[in-house]
UniProtKB/TrEMBL annotation, chains A, B, C, D:
This is HD domain-containing protein. PROSITE patterns: HD (PS51831). Residues 61-186 form the HD domain. InterPro entries: dGTPase-like, HD/PDEase_dom, HD_assoc_2, HD_domain. The lineage of its organism: Bacteria, Bacillati, Bacillota, Bacilli, Lactobacillales.
Amino acid sequence: MSYQDEILPREKVFRDPVHNYIYVQYQVILDLINTSEFQRLRRIKQLGTTSLTFHGAEHTRFGHCLGVYEITRRICDNFQRNYPTKVPGDGLWDDSERLVALCAALLHDIGHGPYSHTFEHIFHTNHEAITVAIITSPMTQVNQVLRRVSPDFPQKVASVIQKTYPNKQVVQMISSQIDADRMDYLLRDAYNTGTKYGTFDLTRILRVMRPYSGGITFEIDGMHAVEDYIMSRFQMYVQIYFHPVSRSMEVILDHLLQRAKEIYTPDNQQDTALSPTLLLPFFNGEFDLKDYLLLDDGTMTTYFAQWRGSHDTVLSDLAARFLDRKPLKSAEFDEKSKDLIPRLRDLIQKAGFDTTYYTAINDSYDLPYDAYDPHLKKPRTQIELMQKDGSLVELSTISSLVSAITGKFSGDQRYFFPREMLLPSSSELELFEPIYREFNRYILNDHIIQPKEN
Amino acid sequence: MSYQDEILPREKVFRDPVHNYIYVQYQVILDLINTSEFQRLRRIKQLGTTSLTFHGAEHTRFGHCLGVYEITRRICDNFQRNYPTKVPGDGLWDDSERLVALCAALLHDIGHGPYSHTFEHIFHTNHEAITVAIITSPMTQVNQVLRRVSPDFPQKVASVIQKTYPNKQVVQMISSQIDADRMDYLLRDAYNTGTKYGTFDLTRILRVMRPYSGGITFEIDGMHAVEDYIMSRFQMYVQIYFHPVSRSMEVILDHLLQRAKEIYTPDNQQDTALSPTLLLPFFNGEFDLKDYLLLDDGTMTTYFAQWRGSHDTVLSDLAARFLDRKPLKSAEFDEKSKDLIPRLRDLIQKAGFDTTYYTAINDSYDLPYDAYDPHLKKPRTQIELMQKDGSLVELSTISSLVSAITGKFSGDQRYFFPREMLLPSSSELELFEPIYREFNRYILNDHIIQPKEN
Amino acid sequence: MSYQDEILPREKVFRDPVHNYIYVQYQVILDLINTSEFQRLRRIKQLGTTSLTFHGAEHTRFGHCLGVYEITRRICDNFQRNYPTKVPGDGLWDDSERLVALCAALLHDIGHGPYSHTFEHIFHTNHEAITVAIITSPMTQVNQVLRRVSPDFPQKVASVIQKTYPNKQVVQMISSQIDADRMDYLLRDAYNTGTKYGTFDLTRILRVMRPYSGGITFEIDGMHAVEDYIMSRFQMYVQIYFHPVSRSMEVILDHLLQRAKEIYTPDNQQDTALSPTLLLPFFNGEFDLKDYLLLDDGTMTTYFAQWRGSHDTVLSDLAARFLDRKPLKSAEFDEKSKDLIPRLRDLIQKAGFDTTYYTAINDSYDLPYDAYDPHLKKPRTQIELMQKDGSLVELSTISSLVSAITGKFSGDQRYFFPREMLLPSSSELELFEPIYREFNRYILNDHIIQPKEN
Amino acid sequence: MSYQDEILPREKVFRDPVHNYIYVQYQVILDLINTSEFQRLRRIKQLGTTSLTFHGAEHTRFGHCLGVYEITRRICDNFQRNYPTKVPGDGLWDDSERLVALCAALLHDIGHGPYSHTFEHIFHTNHEAITVAIITSPMTQVNQVLRRVSPDFPQKVASVIQKTYPNKQVVQMISSQIDADRMDYLLRDAYNTGTKYGTFDLTRILRVMRPYSGGITFEIDGMHAVEDYIMSRFQMYVQIYFHPVSRSMEVILDHLLQRAKEIYTPDNQQDTALSPTLLLPFFNGEFDLKDYLLLDDGTMTTYFAQWRGSHDTVLSDLAARFLDRKPLKSAEFDEKSKDLIPRLRDLIQKAGFDTTYYTAINDSYDLPYDAYDPHLKKPRTQIELMQKDGSLVELSTISSLVSAITGKFSGDQRYFFPREMLLPSSSELELFEPIYREFNRYILNDHIIQPKEN
């Protein structure tokens, strides 16, 4: 039997809190899970600094990747049971696409590193490019497994993730506005944070999902289930992913890495005992895939723990703030109140803070849903519903709820600053009372405002 | 208002997946949570290597400690609502004990470090002693918070954890056979592994729990709920905590640290870039509390990642096996089949493995329940039930189920060895076929057996 | 101790699948639950014909009433813990209002009878008026319990339900757009149908709810939790409460009772054995409260079972259709396609059905949320959120989602007709083929359409 | 295509709170669900009087029957996926048995009537015999559907339920100590009562279940999951099914029907308006299947509501006690204290109660698990586990927990008597004080005791 058809004598399962069991039937899938690169995902938290706001959210990308695989597997099962292709080109499901779909699902996030968003900002890496590199580079175990299927299989799997794979059904299973990736992370993040907002009816969505010639569509009967999913997604964004405390911890992380990068230049590595061995290639801008694969969340915090003892007070203070979870405070602003920020920055400077490292502007925006717009840089696949006579309608044309948020950004702009500006200790207050009093005039109801005349 | 009575203007909550909300009303509690020592628990997994078997079990001791606090808080609420003391010595609940109970609950595990069980085995630390040290040592933030309540308050909190505190109700809330600690970890571990075995009826247990002069007892009506809790506990032990794969990863960890300790002697620290800076004090046997508090799970795996590149092949191989999750295999044995182990060890050696690092004997035993036995080294507080007329009966005298497991150990003894002995690759098989064939004759149905005569 | 202050020696609990435990502390509440009128609610399903679509939805008004009581109790607890009144008129919570609030919560639905909506349509009863009658009429056990508190207590409780009670906080707990009633039924109906749409974050809503001088408001931090509740409510309406199959069974019930009423006139009661003894007062239009309290769901179906044997074929057929769940089919229409209905009715008549009994027009509309509009007949209390400085904002002004559905009706208009028109049996098809073919031209994608020219 | 192979074009689902979705693929199954006899199960509560103790337990036999069908379907799916037969007689699963298994699962309880246990006691019916009658009698819709598969198909389905069907795998799916029936009712009853005791790991049990030549066995790996199921079952019995309040309501029901049967003799039917038309055939002992199928829970309570107005005070009082839920009290007794019951009965009589109708002795016993014992009247199929080498071991030989309860009866014997004996009203107390005082000397801690000498 060829490797790609090698079925386990008895299906293997992984116990999963979200999907109960994850079922593995192919030897290829089991081998991919057992690679070094995939196991590394056990050491990278799915939500980064969010666990500092919602302490339950300590789950890693490992479980999420298994979950995306499992949802994809269930979609394939449903498609094969109810919509198997009969004639090539009939727009129904061709089950010979199953393995490429499952592999792409499992590996779609394999390029993530520790605190990806911040890491990419400081070190100019790109987790999507690294995902493709891990799949296609001959040095990885992942690539070695995939190549056993066929020499061009790694490239096929990569192309699904890059959305250039010809079968749109496979591509949309993994990435579209209602795909296995999003469905898993909403449920998983909701489960682990202990919030209910992300809960939607997965079984029903899977049931109304169906293949057609243009990719994936949904039975019209399931319109409200799809609508409910969009609403859940919206709620997770505004309540969890955009939480100001998590973003504030991300700001600290960003400034901490920035500071370290400035200090650990090739010419300036006096104290080798405190030297962040595994990070140096990134500080120097000379890293390769092997260096990248040695990193995980623990690497970062290990060096932070070392940096606590640094003589650089900014470095040691920011490291302590991150490890001990001392968030910055923040206030919302809009286009108008934005002009007041320099004034605030000025006051913060006067109170003794280096504003480069202790303040930041941070946006969090997301489009909860968008109908197709060819003018966008990254146009999204819109959600289509199939009526009983086979015709399609776009979701926002029949859902007034979805229509209300289509193409509108959610989120806010915030200015971050030291907690001390709002809640000084008594000794601080003594020193800088007029500054604090002035600062507070600009903040009302969590927003930056033009103060009233005295 | 004195610090110990300082109530937050509005109660603060932590969203928790197990208890929904954790409610904080005292400023003292909030300050303790915000200490450096307590925040560090976010970086120490509750179940160590178990997450390598049940991938959902990535939760940390941080959430567990909050959970124990919350259950204790609910017990106090119930006691105060239904059984408030009227006359000193009436055996009912004196609510002035609440703060010491809450602090002890929150801090009972503060001395845990990374992979405690193994770490203690190799480095001869003791998490209980360290817990007491963190609470009573003036250098910690925890101690500084507690001292603000009163100079003797740290010692009082420590004595609850040491079970020497005079009020037995407070002691038994935190440690007895059915205490806030066990109740939280069973529910939390069940939630995160995604298994159902640990689920018991917390609300009902809390409802039937009541204070009496000898400590804590349970209304007789709740007998079956208590029984069900004992059964859940039993199931969690045999199905989760004693899982052979997790124990096998613990064996690898143990051997890896042992090997590193042998290599990184003070005289032998050639390669400083690969030197495990934060672990050195432990290798040297000269660590203090400050050194200990710098460690977490990430420290360990960061050094493991560095060790992958070591020239010592045992060190690098064991590090890779741990990071990439390559468990050993194992077989059960009993007193009789134990004698066959030297023969197996011999074969493993012949197949090219250093048996010091690649084999191990490991027991996992627990007493699911025990009635009081003064002859034991650590006699357990037995579970008593109160009848309507106020008389007490011990649980195992009225529950045939509990009686069936009282004082009986659960668990097994296993011999661990390289997976290759059972499932060699084709190249390995070629080299050592007769050895493998011989080895397999000793293993049947997951047990070591005396092979049949040929 | 006066009756109104009589606290149970130990609180009593009812195990509840939605709220886990329902806690009863007052003797008055326990006595009310034990009245004949309240126990009768065990025999009246909460959702009537919905259980014929979602078979899990067999729960009764008994559990719902306990649930509304429990949520109200928790609101009172939170208000008393965090917002107790200090000075009369300070807009905070006066806990002496607790008992009237709890009684009104428990009794708010006590006047419901079997299949209320249909029953009221045919027999011109009104469950709200009957609720008030049960509370205030000296003949009921409920009234006797309430009168023991004080002579004017029944009237006070009734006035809360009638929304004329002076304390707006108490009134809004029980009836407003986000009250204990709605919160319980959404959660309970979701639990029992097994759908997830009705799930919202009750604990969080309760936490952000607070009293103010104008009634009840919500902390601004909880805006998204409130928004999520509105969305859940919307989903429950469109997916559960307005389900066409349940409405179709309601149509059959309506027509069946209508037919029975026409047959069982005082002059025409030939067959006393089949006579619906307990319904006769309603057929005759001469019923009193006592007659009403003898009815429940079982009364109705018992007579339906008898009517199966009736010589009146419409009566016996409709009874069988109801008992054996043979729903009508339906199609949506709008203002334009409405004009086609007479043509459809004509065809149905030609196919042999009496259209009076076998067809119906049915609307299901609901306002998912409405800001206050003084021009409405029943203006709704709008949802206000309190900002940090104490000022209030109305929900739809800050939530684009809520704004999108504010004041817009959800639901649809449907025309109901016999299933046979769409799916005739082969013998029926033989007889009326051209009629069926013609009929089907008017139906497309579940809507009535103007057929295309042939 | 023959009727038995008729697959629905798209699988139909029923939303179920326990199993999420119930999937129907065969036209035969859908037709069976739509029969009059099956729909009737919607009007018969699964747990009878238990809903008077646990108000959530209002679910009916309809949902349970669907659930048993669904679990059976999943077992078949798993068997077909992992253990399909290759050679006749190889002991693996032959999927041509699927339809008979599914039909038997769906119909196994079709013969249940209202409050079966009590009904059978008074009217000498037998729900198992009626199940067989409904399946095999040509007058039922169920039989008509089954006969379309083949003339002998009804008999085959019946023989599965009667355990005479030759394929033991099919028989044991539906009835054995760990079958689809038990698994569904434990989960469903736990869900609806809102208790957690019945929760066990269904997915894991289904995964370790496998066919063998002797019927059904379980992989040894799943031993603890099976053990946990047995424990859950035990807990449900002792905590839910044997609850004294439910049993007390059953006693009242029994005595009420007994009284009615004595009154409504053929010669004594004065008041036809109050005559229980549908019950008369049972009072007269001359009923047929058609009469039986007209009854449901509502029939009973409708007549009880009528009987409230009866001139017979025992009849009207017992009817009111049942409808208004006024349970009797009870006390446990054992072989020794049994002798005291006549003395208690005497006192009850003296206090004015007719002991025939107001007292009762009631046992509730169940064997939580039994190894096979050929001496028993109804020997149970023991639970076997399959080791890796294919050999079987019986559960209780390897589980000390199961061994502890094997063959031991659980439950208790209780004596039921009027609540007034323990808690007389003040007027009653005045009349009979010495009697009550004497009675209370015999009751301690919920048990009948030999009173202490005065």
